[in-house]
Amino acid sequence: MALSLNKGSIINTPKGNLELIKYLGSGKSGYSWLAKLDGMNVTFKQMHNNKCSYYTFQDNKTNLEVNAYKRLVGTGINIPELICFNTCDNYLVKEFVEGRTAAEAIGNNEITDSLIAQLFEISGTLVQRKINIDYFPTNFIITPDEKLVYIDYEVNEYMHEWSLENWGIYYWANTNGFRKFIETGNATHINENENSGIPIKEPFRKVVTRWIDRYADRK
Question: Are strands 30-37 and 16-26 parallel, antiparallel or unpaired?
Answer without folding.
Answer: antiparallel
